[in-house]
């Protein structure tokens, strides 16, 4: 993948400046690299490699002991493949990363891919038996991560079997999930790819039948990775479609992502309801600063890989999203709060959950440094906030005793110190990408 920072400089009609030399940039990069290698990669691999049944073990205690049934979800398995693929290119002297990536690819190819209907199964048990019945739900989100992993593995290995499966995965999404009339992708499908429609039987708090920002941003991410290794015209069309859909429809005027939509992209919002109703449905309707700052990065990366020239619109909206998150969900001591809401009878925005999930803090660090290098003289002082975020993560999220990251910041949830280090929703992808990107930017390589 081409360096994003060099291309983004070209996107600016007027350069905002160049990163100022700083003695602490290499020191931070070195500390991150030590943590990435010894406290993340060395803790997870090869421990997580399942030599008995294939793929990767999912669930680990706080001190990295395998625990539980070890069910395997497409999202986790794909993220492990992605991380090992990227690590094999970053650290080619460490033989196991390439081997681990191939090991995980074979599990995706031989077990997670549905040989009858196509697409990736959502969940299997440790031995690979599908955990759902004939109406098993497949998701665009899960299939996006399968596509993402296959593309990264092909980039690292040049294994043509991976590219072939990536093409099949893209075609499956095109045939079953893509909405040619109203654009974007349906999230929920039956095993045979039939789109699941929302009806009166679906509880008001369930997301079934809605389109959503989360699957959309990760489809954008997957299409970006795929197009970088297979510059197909239809892939490019879908990449642009998702970029513009997210940027111009899902991002709201204030600078945050609406979470859920009807199939015609009408927003699902409870703002005109009572506060009790809003809080009851908070999983469907809130401001998620973590997703906002992550998406700012993903949009800029997608625009670059798509070859868009002078895309100042995407740059402007990405910056707006970061600024909104900083102005409304940032803790001056470090960290982005998990949830906030614009209540109809209250001024401004209200933080409704002041916890700090690990993935949001990782993504925040990555995007803050990107903004710091693009806008070094901005009033938001992105570089100072990046340093604050790194210090926060190093203090409250990275486990310097047992390794890896706690699931949430201990300043808000100290009980997470003894929580699971890994499960089907927590692996290595968010913090690996963040630290790897930050190391490269700090050293002038991006």
TrEMBL record:
Q: In this record, what's one Pfam family?
A: GlcNAc_2-epim
Gene3D superfamilies to which the protein is assigned, alphabetical: 1.50.10.10
* One Gene Ontology biological process: carbohydrate metabolic process
- What family is it from? Belongs to the N-acylglucosamine 2-epimerase family.
Q: Report the InterPro entries cross-referenced here.
A: 6-hairpin_glycosidase_sf, 6hp_glycosidase-like_sf, AGE/CE
Q: GO molecular function terms here? A: isomerase activity
Descriptive protein name = N-acylglucosamine 2-epimerase
Q: Which domain of life is it from?
A: Bacteria
Keywords for this entry?
Isomerase
Keyword Glycosyltransferase appears in the UniProt entry: no
């Amino acid at each position: 993948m081409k360096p994003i920072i060099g291309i983004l400089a070209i996107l600016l009609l007027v350069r905002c400046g160049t990163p100022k030399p700083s003695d602490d940039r290499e020191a931070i990069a070195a500390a991150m690299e030590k943590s990435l290698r010894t406290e993340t990669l060395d803790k997870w691999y090869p421990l997580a490699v399942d030599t008995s049944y294939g793929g990767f073990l999912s669930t680990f205690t706080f001190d990295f002991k395998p625990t539980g049934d070890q069910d395997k979800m497409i999202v986790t398995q794909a993220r492990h493949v992605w991380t090992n693929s990227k690590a094999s290119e970053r650290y080619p002297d460490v033989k196991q990363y390439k081997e681990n990536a191939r090991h995980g690819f074979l599990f995706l190819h031989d077990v997670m891919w549905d040989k009858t209907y196509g697409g990736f199964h959502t969940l299997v048990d440790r031995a690979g038996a599908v955990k759902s019945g004939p109406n098993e739900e497949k998701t665009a989100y899960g299939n996006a991560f399968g596509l993402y992993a296959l593309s990264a593995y092909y980039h690292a290995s040049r294994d043509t079997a991976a590219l072939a499966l990536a093409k099949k995965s893209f075609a499956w999404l095109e045939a079953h999930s893509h909405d040619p009339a109203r654009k974007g992708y349906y999230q929920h499908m039956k095993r045979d790819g039939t789109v699941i429609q929302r009806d009166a039987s679906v509880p008001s708090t369930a997301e079934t039948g809605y389109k959503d920002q989360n699957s959309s941003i990760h489809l954008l991410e997957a299409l970006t990775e795929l197009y970088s290794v297979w510059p197909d015209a239809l892939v490019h069309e879908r990449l642009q479609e998702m970029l513009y859909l997210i940027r111009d429809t899902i991002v709201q005027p204030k600078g945050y992502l609406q979470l859920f939509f009807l199939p015609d992209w009408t927003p699902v919002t409870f703002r005109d309801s009572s506060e009790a109703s809003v809080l009851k449905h908070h999983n469907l309707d809130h401001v998620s600063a973590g997703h906002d700052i992550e998406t700012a990065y993903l949009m800029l990366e997608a625009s670059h890989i798509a070859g868009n020239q002078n895309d100042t619109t995407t740059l402007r909206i990405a910056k707006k999203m970061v600024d909104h998150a900083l102005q409304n969900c940032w803790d001056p001591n470090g960290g982005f709060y998990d949830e906030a809401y614009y209540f109809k009878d209250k001024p401004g925005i209200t933080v409704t959950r002041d916890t700090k999930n690990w993935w949001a803090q990782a993504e925040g660090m990555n995007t803050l440094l990107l903004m710091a290098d693009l806008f070094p003289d901005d009033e938001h002082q992105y570089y100072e906030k990046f340093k604050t975020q790194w210090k926060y993560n190093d203090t409250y999220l990275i486990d310097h005793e047992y390794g890896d990251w706690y699931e949430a910041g201990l300043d808000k949830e100290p009980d997470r110190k003894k929580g699971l280090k890994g499960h089907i929703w927590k692996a290595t992808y968010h913090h690996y990408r963040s630290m790897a990107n930050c190391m490269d930017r700090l050293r002038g390589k991006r």
